[in-house]
Amino acid sequence: NTFLKNHTYIQGLIQLPSTLFKNKTAGKSIFILRKKAEHINAPKKALLADLPSFSNREAMGRMMTEIDKWFDEEKAYL
User: Fold this and answer.
1) CA 16/CA 50 separation, integer angstroms
2) Which one, of 14, 6, 19, lies nearest residue 50 by Cα?
3) N or C: less crowded end of the chain, CB within 10 Å?
């Protein structure tokens, strides 16, 4: 925990859909970090995404729109 605070910025956390796993308790997330450097700023806000089932095209489309919006906002901040 201390190492992460001192050497990285938390960019985001993506929760994978439980439908990807046979056992719902085996769910996984993707923790996105970026190494700190002089020319790198911390994100204005971290990306937090709870992905819907990949078979739910409408919900996945909405989530991808939200993720794109996050990227656009962060790009403007840098």
Assistant:
1) 7
2) 14
3) N
